[in-house]
Amino acid sequence: MGTSKTGKKAATTAARKARIQELRRAEQARDRRNRVIAITAGVAVLAGLAGFGSYVLLDASEKKDKEKAVAQAPVKGEKTWDAKKLGRNHVTKEVDYPMTPAAGGDHSQAWANCQGDVYDKPLGEENAVHSLEHGAVWITYNDKASDGDIKTLGQKVKATPYTLMSPVEEQKGALTLTAWGRQLTVDKASDPRVGQFLGKYVQGEQTPEPGAACTGGVGPA
Hints:
CATH architecture of the largest domain: 3-Layer(aba) Sandwich
InterPro entries: DUF3105
Number of domains: 2
Protein name: DUF3105 domain-containing protein
Pfam families: DUF3105 (PF11303)
Organism: Streptomyces durmitorensis
Order of helices and strands: HEEHEHEEEH
Transmembrane segments: 36-58
Helix content: 40-55%
Structural class: alpha/beta
CATH class of the largest domain: Alpha Beta
Oligomer: single chain
């Protein structure tokens, strides 16, 4: 009778230990499974972040390339001259320029003030050309231009460093924008090419002397 009770007790204890071991194994297996899931999820998140980062970098690079392509693209309808072949000597006499308004060439030692200066009288071309050499864009107009367009462009010039504006009655078109070796004629101030021309050529790559002064020069004679 005693032996039977002892045997039952030993069997119960063994069963309890076996059950505890089984629960521990199940818990360990669950822990391992959770760790695997966590690691897998972490890798997936990191991969996603890396992929997103790569996408952002590629997108930014592509955007920059597109902006550069737009900036380098010629403005539709613009006339061009080889900037490197235009004379850059300082002279004291009038220069017979092959285009009107002049878009580069030999010029006066004194530049026309071009820090957003708007003139209602003609400038000396030799002075304005020196301003172009410094990276300015020169906007000119004649009597074909409307008062509204002249006012609109005048306001744009006043808000834009390295620009100047003055009348040139001899030009063919109503409104002309000129940079060193570059020139565009438009009929209206609202023409989108006006902004494109200014954005590309104010202190643009065509500039022989970028950053040179646009103050301390001269105005109309």
